[in-house]
Amino acid sequence: MKQIFVIGSINVDILMVSKKLPKIGETIKVDNFYIYPGGKGANQAVASSRNGSKTSLIGKIGNDYFGDFITTYLKKENIQSQIKYGNKTGTALINTETSGKNMISVFAGANSELNINDLKNVEISDSIVLFQQEIPLKTIEDEIRILKNGHNIIITDPSPVTEINEYILKNSDYITPNETEAAKLSGIKIKSIGDARRASEILYEKYGNNIIIKLGERGSIINVSNNIEYFKPYKIIPVDTTGAGDCFNGAFASHLLSTGNVRESVEFANISAAISTTGYGAFPSFPYLNEVLEKFKNR
User: Fold this and answer.
1) Which residues are catalytically annotated?
2) The CATH number fitting domain 4-10+39-89+111-297, selected from 3.40.190.10, 3.40.1190.20, 3.90.25.10, 3.30.870.10
3) Are strands 11-18 and 4-7 parallel, antiparallel or unpaired?
4) What digits encode the pLDDT tens for the residues 94-128?
5) What is the side-by-side order of every strand in the sheet holding 90-97?
6) Is the pTM of this model over 0.85?
7) Partners of 220 in the beta sheet?
8) How far apart are CA 142 and CA 136, in angstroms?
């Protein structure tokens, strides 16, 4: 396969770091404040590029200060950006406590305006294509109908699960929910590895494709061709889990592109995502290929 395309959201992340998360109606002092580019689409593209893959990002931002900030940053990441312009740039407000837990509020902005006409001049074939659900589901569905004719591998991260589009899920080659999303899609409350295994069975039966459930600090479950396997986590002390799931997807796609080995790619992605939790924010904490390979070889 030739390369990776990421079609999805592009935001600016405003990150507040404090010893504890605020309660409703509570005002707290924060220890640190950061502004970084983010959004699930941009995050996955950066993770893919940093892990050595030729990567293109397609999305929509506003013609505003945040939009200029994003395009300047992306140029440094060796990503071939195909940016469209719309309303205000999407923005995420992230409150993170030093234990690694976070709360996130997202304003979709121009991401909600991305439509199939914005993609009509994009030629994709023999590639891995990553989607997430922070852009309109109708746009994803319309584009998948086109991509299915181009010998592509489609990886969909069903996040957030605000609604369920059966066509998208049935026509993706891989679905990669976290445990919360897997619970919503399967109807199984995931409190254990056994629950996750059962959820993967239900999702496989329901959608007929490969399932990867990201369990965070508990590792991951894969169900490929109805063969289920559990992968232990790569042990590390987290400080901020923002973007870890996106890092997993980008790293998984990158390693899959270069090796074609699903099992090995999941192990590689587990390590990359774990490393990303040792720093604050999404982009700044994502590791580069040499760092992941060093730990991957010594796993």
Assistant:
1) 246
2) 3.40.1190.20
3) unpaired
4) 898 887 788 888 899 999 999 999 998 899 999 99
5) 32-38, 11-18, 90-97, 102-107
6) yes
7) 214, 231
8) 10
